[in-house]
Amino acid sequence: MEKMLGIYRLFIGPYRLVCSPWESVYISPNRLLMQGAYGQVIEGYGQMGLAVNSPQIMADHTGPELNFAALMGEKIRLGDENFREAAWKFRRNHLERRALALDTRNFLERGYT
């Protein structure tokens, strides 16, 4: 439980988020919300007939992105090959890109240049 609380603290304030849960923050040059990645994620969900239907949840939040990836994985596991290419594209264009941006920014912010 202690380890889980430590992980949650990365994404929850109240004063400062250590790790932002929104992809657009990592991808946009000025670390702004609802930038290019936000629209791209919505488009990717739409291509698969899905959407985030709550105004309180941003589409490029870690939760919906991982949920979308899990759903695509389940569709592939059940034999729906139409999702295979979309799943790899989503992983490459969103999940991996975010991870790389997070790692690079943390590296630079700590002064390891």
List keywords for this structure.
single chain; mainly alpha
- Tell me the count of domains: 1
How confident overall, as mean pLDDT? 77
Helix/strand class = mainly alpha
Total strands = 0
Radius of gyration: 15 Å
Tell the overall outline.
globular
Q: In percent, how helical is the residue content? A: 55-70%
Element string (H = helix, E = strand): HHHHH
Total number of helices: 5
The N- and C-terminal alpha carbons lie at a distance of 35 Å
Report on the structure:
With 113 residues, the chain is an all-alpha fold. The chain has one domain (23-109). Helix content is 63%, strand content 0%. It has 5 helices and no strands. It has helices spanning 2-11, 23-27, 36-47, 62-77, 82-109. Helix 4 (62-77) packs antiparallel against helix 5 (82-109). It is globular and about 45 Å long. The N and C termini lie far apart (35 Å). The relative contact order is 0.12.
Can I get a quick summary?
This protein is mainly alpha-helical and 113 residues long. The protein contains five helices and no strands.
